[in-house]
Design a protein that fits this description.
Distance between the termini: 21 Å
Bound molecules: ligand KE4
Strand order of the largest sheet: 4-10-9-8-7-5-6
Number of strands: 14
Number of helices: 16
Radius of gyration: 21 Å
Largest sheet: 7 strands, mixed
Length: about 450
């Protein structure tokens, strides 16, 4: 029996909770990526978090590089966000009626994103994408959709075709329970391969409602758009009368106040948001120019609804977070500079220790692939040595560094990550790669 690592030994309360959870929750978790399946460990059950730290139910503290998969760009339990939530909650949790905070939220988002006329609040990124696709189909009168292998756009039926994130982590092409009728109109192209997109347009003339893309792939690990890729999608969609949908559930309000649209200087026809705009509460949104968004009920014939959409407490969290991002001088310059420096240093360690790797990063998002290939799409992402990744993950967890428990996710930095904690993380990585690759003890 191989010796158990500290991570395997220190399971304690998480193991007890996981055993209980598996009796009453499928797989013991409410989202597959939390299950630690691909790294072969009992998932850590988290008790609380503050800043860049999370604490598990055994009282063990970690430097957190998941940040709830993106929302915690200011770090956990930011006082201004908590205060805003507490204040809103005292006035009631939900009314099922219009509130001022929803108007303020829509105005704030539209003021931060150039050319965005209108948004509709929903409760998750999945809902945002599902609704944006429906609006695109309603606006164009067309049915077909192009997505990219390895991109993940939530779990609505039409999106579970060669998807990323947990689908890719589990190595499954899609999902059971999705009838052909729901996915036959979803065509898949290759990321960073404009020919694969134009071929689909040529083969389906006048039938493509939209192209949906993660402007930075962050669900097959991090994969950056190559020069001309996003511009090419913009041109193809315009030429063919199709809508370009930027799924900015991760990149929105992370790369820049205006997200990837601002960062790359490209205007999509529809954009989806989630994560950061909720400040940690369940929020999603989709938006675009007025002529498209006024297709959405009750203004137009595209139906979409939600009991808790625009929930006042969730709006309070999102408003507090977005206002801090907008009003903090140099926030994005500082965060992106810190992120670039951190990932460049990690890259240098891997290179210095002679580790075959590809480290893709942009601002506060990054990912290490254990492959000698340049990772530029789903196929090359899949050349990564996931066994090596799992070993690296366990080592880092033992050293109190909480990475995403899957090769096909991203590391998320926040403004709460201290220089000291980033240095500690680099030291842990240096030890691993030196020990593991050089045999040093
Ligand atoms: P949610 O429905 O999970 O709020 O958002 C779906 C979604 C849509 N679009 C993009 C680009 C996304 O990254 C996501 C969700 N991201 C994953 C992490 N890779 C959520 C984590 C999870 O599934 O638990």
């Amino acid at each position: 029996m191989p010796e158990r690592t500290e991570a395997e030994t220190n399971m304690g309360q998480s193991e007890v909770l996981f055993e209980r959870a598996r009796q009453v929750i499928p797989g013991g978790v409410n989202s597959p990526v939390r299950a630690f399946g691909s790294v072969g460990l009992v998932p850590r059950f988290i008790a609380r978090a503050q800043g860049d730290r999370i604490v598990d139910t055994d009282g063990r503290e970690y430097i957190d590089f998941i940040g709830s998969w993106g929302p915690m760009i200011l770090g956990h339990a930011h006082p201004a966000v908590l205060e805003s939530v507490e204040k809103a909650a005292r006035d009631g949790l939900s009314f099922g009626a219009a509130t001022e905070r929803e108007v303020e939220m829509a105005e704030l988002i539209c003021s931060m994103v150039k050319d965005l006329d209108m948004v509709r609040m929903v409760n998750s990124g999945t809902e945002a994408v599902m609704s944006a696709v429906r609006a695109a189909r309603g606006f164009t009168g067309r049915s077909k959709l192009i997505k990219f292998s390895g991109c993940y756009h939530g779990h609505s039926d039409a999106m579970l075709v060669k998807a990323g994130s947990g689908v890719l982590t589990q190595g499954i092409p899609g999902s059971a329970g999705v009838p052909d009728g729901c996915s036959k109109d979803t065509l898949t192209a290759n990321y960073n391969d404009l020919d694969s997109v134009s071929n689909l347009f040529e083969a389906n003339p006048g039938e493509i409602a939209a192209v949906i893309v993660e402007p930075v792939g962050a669900n097959m690990g991090v994969v950056l758009p190559e020069e001309g890729f996003l511009e090419g999608l913009r041109t193809l969609c315009t030429e063919h009368g199709s809508l370009l949908i930027f799924d900015e559930v991760i990149t929105g309000f992370r790369l820049a106040p205006g997200g990837a649209q601002e960062y790359y200087g490209i205007t999509a026809d529809l954009v989806t948001y989630g994560k950061i705009i909720g400040g940690g509460m369940p929020v999603g949104a989709y938006g675009g120019r007025k002529e498209i968004m006024e297709m959405v009920a009750p203004a137009g014939p595209v139906y979409q609804a939600g009991t808790l959409s625009g929930n006042p407490v969730a709006m309070a969290a999102g408003l507090a977070q977005l206002k801090l991002l907008r009003d903090t001088d140099g926030f994005y310059e500082t965060l992106n500079r810190t992120g670039n420096a951190f990932f460049e240093e990690l890259d240098a360690i891997l290179t210095q220790e002679g580790v075959p790797h590809c480290l893709n990063h942009i601002g506060s998002l990054g990912c290490v692939f254990f492959t000698g290939e340049t990772v530029r799409d789903y196929e090359t992402a899949n050349t990564s040595n996931t066994t090596r990744f799992a070993d690296y993950f366990v080592h880092m967890l033992d050293r109190g560094i909480y990475l995403a428990p899957s090769q096909f996710e991203a590391m998320f930095l926040s403004s709460a990550h201290t220089e000291e904690d980033l240095e500690r993380t680099l030291d842990a990585a240096r030890d691993y790669f030196r020990k593991d690759y050089r045999g040093d003890d």
